[in-house]
Specification:
The structure is a homotrimer.
Chain A: E1 2-4, E2 13-17, E3 23-40, E4 47-66, E5 68-78, H1 81-84, E6 98-108, E7 111-119, H2 124-127, H3 140-145, E8 149-161, E9 165-174, E10 190-198, E11 218-231, E12 233-235, E13 238-241, E14 251-264, E15 267-278, E16 282-284, E17 290-294, E18 298-308, E19 313-324, E20 333-345, E21 349-360, E22 366-377
Antiparallel strand pairs in A: 2-3, 3-4, 3-22, 4-5, 5-6, 6-7, 7-8, 8-9, 9-10, 10-11, 11-14, 12-13, 14-15, 15-18, 16-17, 18-19, 19-20, 20-21, 21-22
């Protein structure tokens, strides 16, 4: 057995070449999730409970630099059945293994060019790794409106003013059909822009919970605008293809995200707003008869606040409201979540649990959900 | 090229952190199998021979401890087409990659809590890794009645009396639908209990062949009882879902295993008995018409004995009898196997070959099978 | 973070055991490809342009020796959706992950026995790793006639005469249905023979581009003959199974390859000829009605020449002609390609781009294609 200088949580392998020609991090992670759910009828009572176990995520991750510290790579593979689901004729009927396969080139000063498949610069909650959430999982806002991963180019840039005031800008052009597509581009491309301001200096703004217990207040505010030109899927670059009797229905879809993250002395507050619009949300065949597919236009709001105690227990409250456009659905979801996390080794080894109450309108049964999750991230 | 202190068979990587915060083993293995089969009609002769080649298993394995030596992990991935087969709507139509994803926590003295997906404490032959078999592959008893892997919790405990007499107890609660299920629990849970006695001290009781050439006789005796409450699959947590016109047929399924392993001076003897019963083996629709699915109730017996020569060649004989309940099938299989193995580097590099004669009743043709397999396990 | 003596391009891990009991290389690679295509009608003009992005290949690779330097292994996994596509009932409806899983045993002097799944000794362009091509991708000759990978045995041998004149011979017997087949052999086996002559000494004859800038002319000439006895697939061991109303249509398929590679002072020239014949190219049912499947008999020729400048830019021209037998198709494809590559770190980090004009007969529209690809190979 060899001895390594590395510590737990820094990867199974974590090396840098003596000649500085490359570095490599190789990590593994998995999450075990237990979920219990009950229906809550409007006239009271709790019924139809069921409890499920799931390997929620299982991943292999590779990161580092190659050739020069200015050229970095990220290669991440999903392995759990939930990670790789979504096979279709558009993915060669093959599971979707590759999450990220991207090169990042710092070609000039504060500019960095990204090429390959990775997350688009959308809402903050999505871009935060699922390994670094302060909640058991992302909010309903994210599951309805996020723009996930795609393949293409991104240009990243940042400016620092007065030592602490940071402005970041990202522009992206992508294929617009989501990740692991082998049938190429249909319709037009997807264009995304994002701007961020960090007025009080850099911090872990893409990681949940104030594990650093910031001694000065830290804030990050972001706005993303995404324009999917002639999109052919129901949730911009996600959801299902809008197939017509002669091909694909195409419509321009716009998604807007506003988000903010604040951290200070163990307190972490994150808020997000999402809005989606489409030129023609109702997919139609060539003869104008509806195909049944509808773009999920509408809006959502999420706010969550947590406090990390000295013993690395964190309590958290979350409120999420999803309000689709009435053209898409009149169902409004309001979800109230209370969470408790124990960070044994930061985000690398943690136990997270939460209880959520989902209030539905339209005389639908409300829902109660309890979850317990272990995260292991070597 | 770096120099490692490790030896072949101890992993591609095998490290421990200087600060004892983690250890990591990363190994790969694959098996190449050649199989020749012939039909043997009752009136004599041999016919319809065919020979097939197969990458039987291909795996990535990760093991070690993290945070503390009291918290160990196992993460194993299957990669061959045989390993990952079994995709269905219940696995998100995705291949079944993850074999094990489990954390084991030695929280108090001799107690260990396991959480995640791994093998249930069923029959010994199943729990022995396929890498450590003394045969080309497991017996027909195992393929008919084993309870394989599932997701849930296991509590392990052991007692040592008089320095050598060891008692082990395991209780397990699992989802009961098998591994890599994304549709959650249907019906009830699966409860498993196992007890083991090692009267003459600890030894490699979950590894085939007496590679250690025990100088004193060693014995392990085990009994497992598995109760799958409201099971919905034809082989307890394996086989196919028993789908009815209104949902799923549910019945309680009980599986019992008795097993023993003996090793002494190159001799290894293993015997197993399995029995499966179900409250209502015949699946029916709501109107009591049969769906066609039947639980594979019945019993089986397996015994095998091998001797390891000084030159690491091992000869082995095996007899397996599978006798289903007549309600399930009147077909009785008796299989006689003669095996020869050469252990080049223990179980890490070996060549195994066997010839089997399968005697079937009911005027069915008997079968003759020859197999040759290489195991490579870095 | 640990320090490694390795350099970029030699693997994420590259170790040899102190006791010489094993060595291990573990590498990762991925390719990001952009493709733009246009139709070119016979009456002129360019139309119907479309641009696609694709993670073309993504791989994990393991290589080294085990037990003894005379026993080497190769284990390679494909991960991109293009790599793993091709699931069918013949692969257990599972994606085709495993590319190579092979042991190579140098059992006597210049003899080496290979066992497992790997590339057959077919045309040179196919056997050159996709990581080491001097073009964006292989030629049309290869996509129509190559015999790819299969499972079985290969015997390799070489002779050296007068220090520099090298003769290599390979004979192979394989299952003949391609890689990752779980349904075993149908029809007969596939027999392949290959002979190679290197009159001016050894060189990188399975790698594109003269990165070594050979100071003396180097030449490799090869011939492969492949006989797939009672083949059941339309492209020998590739393509689709020829299913009839009673089983499978079987016919003997013969494929011949001639190839040559020349390298000298930055110049690299490669030429290949392929020819396929079948006893009965038209698949028929038992009553002699055609099933619609036809074996892709015919021939093809490819020649390419490149020059590597001192700054590691390479220009390359390629001409490929595919001329199927008229029984299969009367469509003749002539493709003209102009390529430009920049080798940042040899084949390990490179940018490749090419433009191709495909001239089709039979009044079909010609095609224009532009491609840009990044290769990253840690």
């Amino acid at each position: 057995q060899d001895i390594t200088e590395n510590k737990f949580g820094k990867g199974l392998i974590n090396v840098v070449a003596k000649d500085s020609s490359f570095s490599a991090y190789f990590g593994i992670r998995f999450q075990s999730l237990m979920t219990s759910k009950w229906d809550v009828p409007e006239n009271g009572g709790i019924q139809d409970g069921e409890t499920n176990f799931l390997i929620r995520r299982a991943r292999l991750k590779f990161e580092g630099f190659a050739y020069s510290p200015k050229l970095t790579y990220k290669f991440e593979l999903g392995l759990s059945n939930r990670d790789i689901s979504g096979a279709s004729q558009f993915t060669s009927n093959a599971p979707r293994f590759v999450l990220d396969a991207v090169l990042k080139w710092n070609f000039y000063e504060n500019f960095e060019l990204w090429a390959g498949q990775t997350k688009l610069p959308g809402n903050r909650e999505r871009v935060i790794s699922s390994a670094n959430l302060e909640t058991v999982d992302r909010s309903l806002l994210n599951s309805r409106y996020n723009i996930d991963r795609d393949i293409g180019l991104q240009l990243h840039h940042f400016i620092t003013i007065n030592d602490t005031f940071i402005i970041r800008e990202i522009v992206s052009i992508a294929q617009g059909e989501g990740r692991n597509i082998t049938t190429g581009n249909i319709g037009g491309y997807q264009y995304t822009g994002r701007a961020e301001i960090l007025p009080f200096g850099d911090f872990s703004d893409y990681s949940g919970a104030d594990l650093e217990r910031e001694s000065n207040p830290k804030l990050a505010v972001g706005v993303s605008y995404d324009y999917n030109d002639n999109a052919v899927k129901t949730r911009s670059n996600m959801g299902s293809y809008m197939i017509t009797d002669t091909g694909f229905f195409e419509t321009d879809i716009q998604t807007l995200f506003l988000d903010a993250l604040f951290k200070y002395e163990g307190v972490s507050i994150m808020a997000e707003y999402a809005n989606r619009e489409a030129d023609n949300p109702f997919a139609v065949n060539e003869d104008s008869t509806p195909t049944g597919d509808v773009v999920n236009i509408g809006e959502a709001f999420n706010i969550q606040a947590g406090y990390l105690f000295e013993n690395n227990y964190q309590v958290l409250g979350r409120f999420t409201s999803v309000d689709p456009d009435d053209d898409f659905s009149e169902l409004v979801e309001n979800q109230y979540t209370l969470g408790l996390s124990k960070y044994l080794v930061g985000h690398k080894l943690k136990v997270q649990t939460d209880i959520s109450y989902t209030d539905l309108n339209q005389d639908q049964f409300d829902g109660l959900m309890y979850r317990l999750q272990f995260e292991f991230h070597l």
